[in-house]
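Note to self: keep these together.
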Amino acid sequence: MSDLKIRPISDALARKAMDELNENDKFTVEELEAIRIWLQQSKHIRGRNDDQFLVNFLRACKHSIQRVKEKMDIYYSIRTVLPEVMANRDPLDPFIRKVIQMGVSVPLPKTVNPDDPKIMLIRGNAFDGDVCDFPDILKIFTMIGDIQFRDDDQLVICGETAIIDLGSSPSSHFFNFNISFLKKAAILNQQGCPLRQKGFHFINTPKGFDIVINVFKSLMTEKNRGKTIISHGSSLASLHKYFPKSILPEEYGGELGPVQQFVDEWEQRLIDNREYLIHDQSLGVDESKRISTNPIAEEKDLFGTVGSFRKLELD
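Structure:
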């Protein structure tokens, strides 16, 4: 890949990409050319086509050109029908900055091994429903995810595991949105997201959590239902069986220091990438120029009537 503008990766990540993602340097130039030709022919898509972005998409789709086409079309189509998430992504906007500072979504910097999945900490008790709504939280989540997807080769190649701390979150927070939005968000974060989710670990689960987890599972694709989903109750000892103290913040019995330092670091990182994030607001689809079938318009429940989501299980 020496002729491409792509970051070099470590030997550990290169082995992982070859063994698990079907990566072969001999074919990457041809693969990128095929994707670019498809993008040129798909005049409805306004998307990025730089080498690094397209290689990251290839890795996310295990170097299947067909899966890249399907996922990328959904990636841009679903973003277009979620303006409450994809519009106004300015990290210096006072309201957006306040939501960032809540620190609901907090990427953790370390893993035990260099080819382990990266870790995203999601803190339900940091969500103040009097200040913002769930779409605002998802907006920050996607802003962080866009920067991670661009910059973090370990995340792209090895995937991500989520630690979801429900803390003292009132159950009303989990239902502070309509089901139509929730389904769109599920498509965005599964079929349309190029980041591969490896598992979900819940901690500090409240009473009635079974209801939440059943809703959570019902919105997953069949493939994602097979991922690791573990509830640790309130037991840090149970959490530490999967995540040693060396890679956790001090609030979770770890040695990394307080969560707030990572919240602050990501606030600054989003500000540093303000131009990139604002530019991404202009990306999406123009349905008037589409020749192919819209992969989400057939899903009638996204537009007010009942439909099936099974068509979208592309993986």
